[in-house]
Design goal:
By secondary structure, this protein is an alpha+beta fold. Helix content is 40%, strand content 18%. It is elongated and about 65 Å long. It starts with a strand and ends in an 8-residue tail after the last helix.
Length: 83
Amino acid sequence: MQREITQRELRNESGAIMRAIDGGESFVVTRNGVPVAEMTPVRRRKSTSRAAIVKAFKNAPSIDAKRFFADIDAILDQDPTIS
């Protein structure tokens, strides 16, 4: 749930607010009682291990590279001199 804070609170308590955001809290900033902004944590990227990726694709069909690129060339115009 988002907590409402005033513009003044944001200015005066920015350090505490930033720590709260870092901890997962969200805020709606108001000016004269009117909401003007939302402050939410940025989603952090989750990395996947190489072993997990290899396991996920273990049973995937193999790809014929020549046929794959031929199919791409048949669909897309990849001539860099044509705009």
